[in-house]
Amino acid sequence: MQTFNIHEAKTHLSRLIDMAAAGEAFIIAKAGKPMVKVTSIVEAIPTGTRQLGFMAGQMLIPDDFDEMGAQEIAALFSGT
Q1: What pLDDT is attached to residue 43?
Q2: Which of 15, 34, 37, 42 lies closest to 26, judged by CA?
Q3: What angle is formed at CA 28 by the lines to CA 25 and CA 31, rounded to 5 degrees?
Q4: How many domains, the chain?
Q5: Which CATH number is 31's domain given?
Q6: Coil, strand, or helix at residue 1?
Q7: How far apart are CA 19 and CA 2, in angstroms?
Q8: Residue ranges of the chain with pLDDT lower than 50?
Q9: What is the pTM of this model?
Q10: How many other C-beta atoms are found inside a 10 Å radius of the C-beta of residue 31?
């Protein structure tokens, strides 16, 4: 991650904003001490489409899934 001093950041602000908007964060320092980190607030655009049900038929969930471990969980809460 690149670091720029305040004077340099003021001089090249437009270029640095474009750089941050493109996803490349940077740090602004004062007298060599890092003060702020500048990043884009625009959320990244998903690269692909999401597919619902893409694992259909590849997993088996037992019919008693909701009841599995019920006795053990009840014992944990009751302290017995």
Answers
A1: 67
A2: 37
A3: 155
A4: 1
A5: 3.40.1620.10
A6: coil
A7: 11
A8: none
A9: 0.51
A10: 7
Element (DSSP H or E) covering residue 20: helix 13-21
What is the Cα–Cα distance from 9 to 15, expressed in whole angstroms? 9
Taken in order 27, 28, 34, 39, the sign of the CA dihedral is negative
CA distance 21 to 14: 11
Give a yes or no: residue 78 inside a domain: no
Q: Is residue 62 part of a domain?
A: no
**For residues 10 and 17, what is the distance between their CA atoms, to the nearest angstrom?**
11
- Tell whether 57 is covered by a domain: no
Domain range for 17 is 2-38
Would you say residue 69 lies in a domain?
Answer: no
Q: How far apart, in whole angstroms, are the C-alpha atoms of residue 16 and residue 28?
A: 10
Q: How much helix, strand and coil, in percent to the nearest 5, is found in the chain?
A: 35, 20, 50
